[in-house]
Specification:
The complex is a heterodimer. By secondary structure, chain A is of the alpha+beta class. A 5-stranded antiparallel sheet of chain A has the order 1-2-3-5-4, covered by helices on one side. The longest helix of chain A has 22 residues. The two termini of chain A are about 25 Å apart. Helices cover about 30% and strands about 25% of the residues of chain A. In chain B, β3, α2 and β4 form a beta-alpha-beta unit. The relative contact order of chain B is 0.21. Chain B has a 4-stranded mixed sheet. Chain B is α/β, with parallel strands linked by helices. Chain B contains 3 helices and 4 strands. Chain B has one domain: STAS domain (Transcription Regulator spoIIAA), CATH 3.30.750.24. Classes of the chains: A alpha+beta, B alpha/beta. Chains A and B meet through α2 and α3 of A and α2 and α3 of B.
């Protein structure tokens, strides 16, 4: 198993997200993850970073956002932490409800919850932890699914 | 992300290639703004060259759907990969 354990800190500037995402994915690609899992990880990590910068830091460049990435025995764990005011994840709208289908925002966390195997919020919503289990089967999909 | 247009008999075909995300959705919104200004009411978006879309890309599509609906138009999609469909 590839040893992977690193942290990165970025100013809250959306223009820095593509490079941070690209650098992080370069490392994550060394892990036993299929094409679909890598796509899910990229999208989830981007949504989490954008949420932290836009809604957590409110685009205040001075407030940094931290990313922790750790490969465990059976999974990849990514944690994004901001220094904002936090929020109640339980009160997020469900974008699949008819009344919300045409709303232009509020899909980021919903996407993350559907693409990752586990999602948890800590510290009043300032920290999101996302888990993806490594590829076990020959069909390129993760065998273990544990929806957050 | 790249876009190109083709005038079809009953619709305007808008072909998108690349990634539709927080960095490129502004560019896509400008393309859609232009279609609205030109009074294109039936728009078919070809997605087979798109492998990645995030929530800001989805919001851009929903916004265009709403704008076209308001003027009696229609927005249709074709060629979506499973990865892109999963985001909807």
């Amino acid at each position: 198993m590839e040893h992977l354990n690193f942290s990165k800190e970025t100013p809250s500037d959306l223009s820095l997200v593509p490079q941070l995402l690209s650098d992080t994915l370069q490392e994550i690609k060394k892990l036993p993850l299929g094409d679909k899992a890598l796509h899910d990880i990229k999208l989830s990590l981007q949504e989490a970073l954008v949420n932290a910068i836009k809604h957590g830091s409110r685009l205040n460049r001075v407030l940094s956002v931290r990313l922790d990435v750790e490969a465990r025995q059976d999974s990849l764990v990514m944690t994004v932490t901001d220094r904002g005011e936090g929020f109640d994840a339980a009160r997020l709208m469900d974008p699949t409800q008819p009344a919300n289908l045409q709303r232009l925002s509020g899909r980021g966390v919903f996407l993350i919850r559907n693409l990752m195997d586990g999602v948890e919020f800590f510290d009043g919503g300032r920290k999101i932890q996302m888990i993806k289990f490594f590829q076990k089967g020959a069909n390129g999909e993760n065998e273990r699914r544990k929806k957050g | 992300m790249k876009t190109r247009e083709e005038k079809k008999a009953d619709a305007l075909l808008c072909v998108i290639e690349g990634e539709v995300d927080i960095n490129t959705s502004v560019q896509l919104r400008k393309v859609f703004d232009d279609l609205i200004k030109r009074n294109e009411k039936k728009v078919l978006v070809e997605f087979s060259g798109v492998e990645y879309i995030d929530s800001s890309g989805l919001a851009t599509l929903i916004e265009m759907f709403q704008r076209l609906k308001k003027i009696g138009g229609k927005l249709r999609f074709s060629g979506m990969s499973q990865k892109v469909k999963n985001a909807f």
